[in-house]
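Title: Comparing notes on inverse folding

I've been comparing how different people in this forum approach sequence design from structure. To keep things fair, I'm posting one structure and asking everyone to reply with a full sequence. Here's the target:
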């Protein structure tokens, strides 16, 4: 397990969104106290994944109590080769929304995605005769391994947990709810499905509808299903067939046909789409008395280094807005700078940002690491290492 790190996360990206923040936080106070969040890179033990285990990333409030788990499941790209470029860190902005609502949000990369070994273990087979139940069974096994790992922690509880997924992760979430583990109280599927090989072209759609119907036979956990009306992976007619099959077999799911989003509504559930999907999430959580009463608000932003000019300050704002951990910003006395984000570890981010800065000046020092001033970030790392787990 990688060393844990406590990070003060600044959500500056919201300031650039076209919809004002209070719209996304209806019914909450926009002036709530600034929040701290804790993040941790993990490997989930699983025999089928070998000694490396499953890649995962945890985001939760920085308090000392046990937070209910929000188990988050990713989609599956149309091209198999794109799986290797996926990373749990890329879902940080989405996971943060659940952490802001009082959950310990865990993004787990299923076998064959990101750095989780597994190859094509979740294959649906030849397109014309695609079979979805075996693939869903593989996904459920991975999610259950993550739940078992979280149940052993002192800062997470699986009692009162929720599950949420997007696209293939939505299908995996529906499948998990059909075999609900103890403690699962609600589940959410955004654009759930599998087998899209091109716009409005799904492998064996009748088989996929039947898979949803099969899950409905045993699923009784309350669910929320959201599909945008311009989803090019799973269009509105097919999405309704999914829901009809699921409900017709006894499943409990509220269906929301969300307004068209962007050029492809399949990506409504995204960092940029937060003002559109978080109100739906909040309404569902309130209906089932889940999540924190108050949504944790934005912390105050870090001040820019005093030696930066106007253009460089704009770059620092871009750094703050980046929602891809891990990141670092380096600066020189004469106003030179360099920053990098999306690195595997904070050490990588520090090294790469210093190297970028030193292209302009030999006297560069770290100013910020992730979303803390460099000295504070280093002290936090020392504190966490001393505390241990």
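Reply #1:
Here's my take.
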């Amino acid at each position: 397990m990688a060393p844990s790190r406590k990070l003060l996360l600044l959500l500056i990206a919201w300031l650039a969104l076209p919809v004002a923040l209070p719209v996304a936080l209806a019914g909450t106070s926009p002036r709530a106290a600034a929040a701290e969040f804790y993040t941790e890179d993990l490997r989930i033990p699983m025999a089928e994944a070998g000694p490396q285990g499953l890649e995962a990333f945890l985001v939760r409030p920085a308090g000392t109590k046990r937070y209910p788990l929000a188990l988050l499941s990713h989609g599956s790209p149309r091209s198999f080769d794109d799986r290797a470029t996926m990373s749990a860190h890329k879902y940080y902005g989405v996971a943060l929304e659940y952490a802001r609502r009082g959950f310990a949000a865990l993004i787990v990369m299923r076998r064959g995605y990101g750095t989780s070994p597994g190859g094509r273990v979740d294959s649906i087979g030849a397109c014309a005769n695609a079979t979805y139940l075996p693939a869903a069974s593989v996904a459920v096994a991975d999610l259950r391994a993550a739940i078992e790992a979280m149940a052993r922690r002192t800062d997470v509880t699986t009692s009162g947990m929720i599950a949420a997924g997007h696209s293939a992760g939505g299908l995996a979430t529906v499948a998990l709810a059909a075999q609900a583990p103890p403690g699962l109280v609600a589940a959410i599927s955004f654009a759930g499905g599998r087998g899209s090989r091109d716009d409005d072209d799904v492998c064996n759609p009748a088989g996929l509808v039947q898979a949803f119907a099969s899950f409905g036979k045993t699923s009784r956990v309350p669910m929320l299903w959201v599909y945008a009306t311009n989803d090019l992976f799973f269009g509105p007619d097919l999405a309704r067939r999914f829901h009809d099959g699921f409900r017709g077999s006894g499943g409990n799911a509220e269906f929301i046909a969300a307004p068209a989003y962007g050029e492809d509504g399949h990506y409504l559930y995204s960092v940029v789409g937060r003002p559109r999907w978080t109100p739906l999430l909040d309404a569902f959580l309130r209906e089932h008395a889940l999540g924190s009463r108050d949504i944790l608000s934005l912390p105050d932003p870090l001040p820019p280094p005093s030696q930066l000019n106007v253009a460089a300050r704009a770059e620092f704002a871009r750094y703050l807005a980046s929602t891809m951990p891990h990141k670092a910003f380096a600066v020189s006395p004469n106003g030179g700078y360099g920053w990098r984000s999306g690195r595997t570890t904070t050490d990588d981010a520090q090294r790469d940002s210093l190297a970028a800065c030193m292209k302009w000046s030999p006297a560069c020092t770290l100013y910020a690491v992730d979303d803390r001033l460099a000295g504070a970030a280093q002290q936090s790392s020392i504190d966490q290492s001393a505390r241990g787990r």
